[in-house]
Task: structure prediction
Amino acid sequence: MPAISPPPAARDARGLGLLVAYFLVTLLLAAALAPPIYWWLHGWAEAASSGAAAGDASGGLARYLAEKGFPRFFDRIRWLLVLGGLPWLCRATGLAGRRELGLRGGREAWRVLVLWLAAGLLMVAGIAAGQVASEGAALRLPASPGPIVEALLVGLVAAALIAFFEELVFRGAVFQLAHRALPAWGAVPLAALLFALVHFQRVPRSAWPEGTPVGWESGFAVAWRSLAAIPGTLDPAIFAGLVLAGAILCLLFLRHGTLLAPIGLHAGWVWAAQLHRRWVEVEAPTAAWGGRTLIDGAVPLGLLVLLLAGMILAFRYSAVGLARGRRP
Result:
C-alpha cells in the first residue's frame, strides 16, 4: 500500500486547524467580495447588451454570468477563492509540490486513471439504463450525430475539470490533512462526511427569491444561509450516496498512491451524469433506480456499498500479503 501520510508516530492535527481557518476565511472573503463583483458584472452585461460588444464573446460571457442568481454567484466566488488560496494552504501544511499532493504520474498511474474513468462511466450508464428499462425514464437522443459528439467532448472536458479540482481539494488536501491527524479508519469517514456536506451548502430558492436586491450585507447573509441550509436541504439517500462515494475516492487514493485514480472514477461519474441530464428524461423516479441525481435509489446505493466493501477487502488482502512478505 503506498504511503500517503506520515506514520502514526508523526501524526499532527495542526493541519486540520489550518483547514478550518482556511474554510472560514474564504467564506468571509467571498461574502465581502461577491456583491461588488456582482454589481460590476451586471454593469458590464448591460454595457455589452447596449453597445458594440453586444454580439462578441465577452458580452455573451458577461450576460451568462450575470443571469446567475446571487447565491449561485456567491458559491462560484467562494470556490475561486478556495482554489486560489490552495497553494498557500499546501505550503503552510507541508503539502507543497506535486508528489506531496498525490499528483504522481507515470504509465501505471495513467492506466489506472483510464480504467477507473471507464468504471465510473459504465456504473452510471448502467443505472441510467435501468431507469429507462423500468419505464421510469425515457431516452431522448438527438437525431443527428453532431450534437452527440459535441456533448460527449464538452462533457468529458467539463467532467475532467470538475474531478481534478474537487479531488485536488478533497483528497489532495482535506483527506491528507485528516490522515495526518487520524489513522485511515478515522480520516476516511471524516473526509467523506465533509465531501458530502459541502454538496448541500446551497441556499434554497425560497430563501432567496429571484429579484431580491443585492446590498453590501448580502454576501454575509448568503454565507450564513449556505451553512444554515444544510439541515433543511439534506436528503438522507443522496447524503448517504455522497458519503459512500467520498469514502471510495479516499480509498482509491490510498490504494494507488496517486490522485489520478480518484480523478478517473470521479470524472467517469460526472461525465455520465452530465450526459444523463442531456439525454434522459426522468418521468417517474423509482425507489430502485432513483431520479435525476442518479444516487438516491436502492440500486445505486447498493452498487456503492458493494464497491466500498470490495475496496476494504482488497486493503485487508494487501495488509495480509505484506505481513507474510508477499507483494500486494
